[in-house]
Amino acid sequence: MARIGIQLMMLKDHVAEQGIGPVLQRVHETGFEVVEVSQIPMTEENVAGMEAARESLGIEVAAISAKTSVPAGSDELSLEHDVDLHIEHARRLGTSMLRIGMMPMSALRSREAFDDFAAEADAHAQRLAAEGLSLSYHNHHVEFAKIEGETLLDRLRRKAPHLRFEIDCHWVQRGGFDPERTLKAFDGVLDLVHLKDFRIAMPPAEVLESMESGDRDVFAQFWQADIVQFAEVGQGTLDWRPVIEQAIASGAEHLLIEQDRTYGRDIWESLDMSREHLVSLGYEALITTGGPRWPSRSH
Hints:
The chain is of the alpha/beta class and 299 residues long.
């Protein structure tokens, strides 16, 4: 059944300070029951805490994160060296989905390097499929750059036919493509979606004052980098109802609210705002139990 939840990456600092248990308790009190795990260290303490939250709070883990490989000497987990531990974590947390948050930067060096990454990801997807688990790839905007007239995202789909996908709506928009059409194009290979809004910000007074005083560098920085923002769902430019409808029609199992930056706003307030907007659109039954939900399609 399709569900709407949140990306725990937004709460990584809270987890580091308070521990996973109190944070998941607050998540539950905020009205969410589904989480995706990213940038949370998969220590025994954290994994056990998430297990306990499943039992005591009914928190559902949509997916856990994995890297294909890590630099030599790194203590991070990778599918290259720790696939059995990833499988163990998935089973303990009751999820059948793993997701790659980003390709290694080295994959962007050349066509050959990118194709090597695609082959590596596809091999991991096949290995996990043999264990009843799926592996999805999460896009940013760089995947809409092109090699020989083909976007990296389309090339990855072609070169890694066993890989599934997590489409991030904000990064699709920032990459110059339409989220609804992209979700439709990934019908049949779509497991996960990030609900992240796209906002164009008004320049703050201090930026305008700096420009008027002759300092154009501050304005140039804002114009080139900060005018495009991550936003709470419903506080940006994306039209969410058709996007969500298409995500579900294309087979998404989980739709996760994510916001990389809140620009001074408390993250819990941002989550409340996103939830409120989705409820106003009629999607409360996808967020909390007790009501009918959209049926998902089998793959």
